[in-house]
Specification:
The protein is mainly alpha-helical and about 160 residues long. About 70% of the residues lie in helices and about 0% in strands.
């Protein structure tokens, strides 16, 4: 009987049509990012499992005066790596924009996406520490300025497919 069960189960297993599904790393966060923000899509794909818990910790501990500025500092440094690699020239040409319009698009996207991450943290900080409202605000301005500088520097010295 055990031999018969083994043969029967082997026969059943061989008839199964099993195709492993390829798991997509596209999360809800990546689908919310416009296609023009491909740097952010790639960066979120790499660092999502670090950024989301960090953001949740920042929101959850916003009643401590130092937690939100520290989380904002870390979340401000992470997008710097998003702009390291130079994309192929075809990706830039596909926008069909002149250089001025293209740079404004990149800066606007950076401003919107970084603001979406940090403004809830700033709001939570101000809720608990209204007298120190300027701390996260100044940090926000410093990082937005740094990100804009990085975008302008990347495309000033642009070389396709380079790091």
């Amino acid at each position: 009987i055990p031999l018969l069960l083994l043969v029967a189960s082997t026969g059943i297993i061989t008839q199964l049509d099993y195709k492993p599904k390829q798991r997509s790393t596209n999360s809800l966060f990546q689908r919310l990012i416009p296609s023009a923000g491909f740097e952010w899509k790639a960066g979120i794909r790499r660092s999502l499992f670090f950024m989301v818990p960090l953001w949740i910790i920042g929101m959850g501990t916003s009643y401590f005066i130092g937690s939100v500025p520290i989380v904002m500092f870390i979340l401000g440094i992470i997008p710097i790596s998003f702009y390291e690699n130079g994309e192929p020239i075809q990706m830039i040409l596909s926008y069909e924009k002149n250089s001025h319009q293209f740079l404004w698009l990149k800066i606007k996207l950076q401003f919107i996406l970084y603001s979406a991450i940090t403004l809830p943290l700033i709001g939570a900080f101000i809720l608990f520490h209204a007298e120190f409202w300027y701390i996260p605000f100044i940090e926000y301005l410093v990082f937005i300025t740094l990100h804009i500088f990085l975008i302008l520097t990347k495309y000033t010295f642009y070389q396709p497919n380079s790091k």
